[in-house]
Amino acid sequence: QVQLVESGGGLVQPGGSLRLSCAASGIIFSIYHMHWYRQPPGKQRELVAIITSSGGTVYADSVRGRFTISRDNAKNTVNLQMNSLKPEDTAVYYCRAINERDYWGPGTQVTVSS
Questions:
Q1: What is the pLDDT of residue 104?
Q2: How confident is the model at residue 25 (pLDDT cuts 50, 70, 90)?
Q3: ∠76-80-85 over CA atoms, to 5°?
Q4: DSSP annotation string for the chain
Q5: Dist. CA 49–CA 34, nearest whole Å
Q6: H-run or E-run covering 21
Q7: What phi, psi does 86 have (nearest 5°)?
Q8: What rounded mean pLDDT belongs to the chain?
Q9: pLDDT band with cut points at 50, 70 and 90 for residue 109
Q10: What is the band of 53 on the pLDDT scale with cuts at 50, 70, 90?
Q11: Count of CB atoms situated within 10 Å of the CB of 98
């Protein structure tokens, strides 16, 4: 049974930081391209960052320079370090794994507000 479980969300003030983690089980994690998406309130889901199986990274323009995606194949986890958070970063953040199949986690809420 494949599971992706996000953690680390919460409430943070503008300018603050959060670190999201996604723990994967039931897949050969190292061969999967891992993604973070987010869905702001009332908006469509959007891509935040990608880390490929070989470690290459891609970022959305809106987060480049503030967010860092990383992976730990030994622990089957992908992380998203989020710095200099803005109110517009408020969203539900989702982890996604893609290779031959496509899996999503249930999401974790991030709220940036004073």
A1: 98
A2: very high
A3: 165
A4: --EEEEE--EEE-TT--EEEEEEEESS-GGGSEEEEEEE-TTS--EEEEEE-TTS-EEE-TTTBTTEEEEEETTTTEEEEEE-S--GGG-EEEEEEEESSSEEE---EEEEE--
A5: 9
A6: strand 18-25
A7: -120, 160
A8: 97
A9: very high
A10: very high
A11: 15
- Structural contact between residues 10 and 110, judged by C-beta atoms closer than 8 angstroms: yes
Tokens of 29: 């994690």
Share of the chain above pLDDT 70, in %: 100
Please count the residues of the chain: 114
Q: Which two tokens stand for residue 49?
A: 């960052």
Residue type at 84? S
